[in-house]
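Minutes, project check-in

Agenda point 3 was the complex the collaborators sent over. CS summarized: two entities, 540 residues total, and the question is how they sit relative to each other. Sequences were read into the notes so everyone works from the same version.
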Amino acid sequence: MIEIVAAPPYLTIQDQGRPGHRAEGVPGGGAIDTWGHAVANAVVGNPANAAALEWGLSGGRIRWRRRGVFALAGAQVEATLDGEPVAMHRSQRAEAGSELVINRFLGGRFVYVAFSGGIDVPLVLGSRSTYLAARFGGLEGRMVRAGDRLPVGDPGEPAVAGFAVPAELMPRYDSAEAGVVTGPQAGLFSAETWHVLTDTVFGIDAASDRMGYRLVGPPIEHAGDAALPSAPVCAGAVQIPAGGRPIVLMADGPTVGGYPVIAVVCSTDLPVVAQRRPGESLRFRVMTVEASQSAFRRRAVAIHTLAHLARTRETG
Amino acid sequence: MSDSGVAAPTFTPLADSALTITLGDRADAAMSARVRMVAAAVRAAALPPVRDIASGYAVVTVWYDALHTSYETMVRTLEPIVNEAAAVAPGADAPVGREHEIPVRYDGPDLDEVARRTGLSVADVVARHTGRVYTVYFLGFVPGWAYLGDLDPSLVVPRRTEPRPRVPAGSVAIAGAQTGVYPYAIPGGWHLIGRTSAELFDPMRDPPAVFAAGDRVRFVRVAE
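CS then shared the predicted structure for the full assembly.
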């Protein structure tokens, strides 16, 4: 059991998502940065799909009511455990009464706090992820607040403290470049428009959240109707609404859309987009489906390798 | 594409973990039946890599596990299943949905404006909205949201120029040739003509959504 002593404005419980219900309108959901989330879990010996805290925007405090092992990954934060500095990407032991203080964010938007054993909230439609728009999953479908107590599952085998992620398996967000595959309506856009998409350094708009990130840049024009017959869309879809300002759909985005989708961000690069802050830049680079799927498999192997290292105590 | 809007199904990738099967470019009842048959056939095939299936007006999208298969392999596997299902003329074989009656209080804030824009009386707007049985084309956007059509042509008005930042849950609304019910309080640009107490989505229920693609829905006027 852990207790939230002071909560940031954004704090939810997320696992790797809720697939299988899109035909009922339920988005895939789950961690907005699946990479940081999976790494935090791997470090503490959890399966990638264990529920962890997705902590955004600013600082706060957590107190342990029973000893446990935890790790931080995702956004770079300055944190202390009982006054001692806490390293990112390293499993640490907290005693009953220990306090983790996240002081401030140095880079990125969402930090994951994973606990060995995972946060043990009930499964809703097969997932522990919080879905704020429809108010279900996580803790009563809402933000976690100061005073909330969260049950932590039994890890079985006690997790190892002091395991650090080897440099080559660290999640990296510094590229500011995301690979995209051409989208279903790519044909509605001219070659010049494609150059606008791939040559522009876009900014991230402040109106960006788990539903979608709005991009700031020159308008993307297209030849077809601004509204098409609605069709399923996915996280990473780059929609071009009537005004030509791209929206990248994120984990809790709508399951269908009627705007042309010019491109779709590769799933391995969506975490890079997710961690961009308002005002920061983003560029797109076109990839083939094959290259995107290869990157997806390499990422899965890296996380599997990391989980194996963490379990076998071969610290990096 | 032929005059009927029906062509051989085409496959396009939706990034690295999904693909979209396009069955045509129309949004009508015949296309909807074809979409349901293709979606049902893909579901029935129970292919191990398939993670999720969702539909639109003229498309079916399939999510798959790209760790264990590739786009090319998925297309090769799906093509015969999809072609066979799409070749069947929609009719007697189309999966039959359930029927629903949704009680509505017709007191929405846009009811008068809809009457003004359509040149009908409020009573006529209500009569024409309740006078049809609507087909659930598919669900999507938010949990439990059903794309219902088609409206009586005299009720067709474009969506509001200024979407509301928050439409109350249970609002019964129209836009274009569509009608629908907001399952949650969300932003929306449709014209609100009434309210229902029906709970269209409950994640703890099985199935969680009241409506499913292919169901038929009738709105019934109830007193204040």
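Noted in discussion: The helical segments of chain B are 29-45, 71-87, 111-118, 122-130.
Follow-up: revisit at the next meeting once the mutant set is ready.
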